[in-house]
Amino acid sequence: MSINTLPGTKSIHGTDPQFLIEKIVRERIYESLYWKQECYDLTTESLVEKAVRLSHIGSTFGGNQKPTPFLCLLLKLLQLQPDFEIVYALIKDPTFKYLRILASFYLRLVGRPRDIYENLEPLYSDYRKIRVKAPSSDYYLLCIDQVIETLLNEDGIFSIHLPRIPKRRDVEAKDGLAPRTSCLADQLTS
Fold this sequence. Notes:
Radius of gyration: 17 Å
Low-confidence stretches: none
Helix content: 40-55%
GO biological process, one term: mRNA splicing, via spliceosome
Organism: Mitosporidium daphniae
Subcellular location: Nucleus
Pfam families: PRP38 (PF03371)
Main location: nucleus
């Protein structure tokens, strides 16, 4: 089961969920020591336990472009396809910031546009800092709201091309998504 999607898993955007991560990155993940030792026989529950222990996020790093544990766990989430209610609960729970980012990233890859906006936009008010491992193996800091901004508005992050989603105003018009209220709106009107 190490590199195969679970039987009965639904296709996402018309393809195997693992294929949302580019082939070269996926191959590096499969060949990594972390994947072989830590991710081989994970269930959703044991994956959450591993994600709680994450100390940074990022893509690939170093001369041979090894994947970060964050990226390995993201691929494993794509294999396991946990129930969306579990993913929403992980996003709403502020206790573990790296787990929250992992669940947010997963939702952005596989979720419907309305669900993505409804669940990720509240994280704009989470200003905690997280460590990011750069391709040069150096670390830098980002705030969670910056990562969410990138997930919602950019084409890719951490060597992963994100599926296109409609602009928020289009989702409001088509799917009845409530207009977003800024946390600064109250301060500006008073």
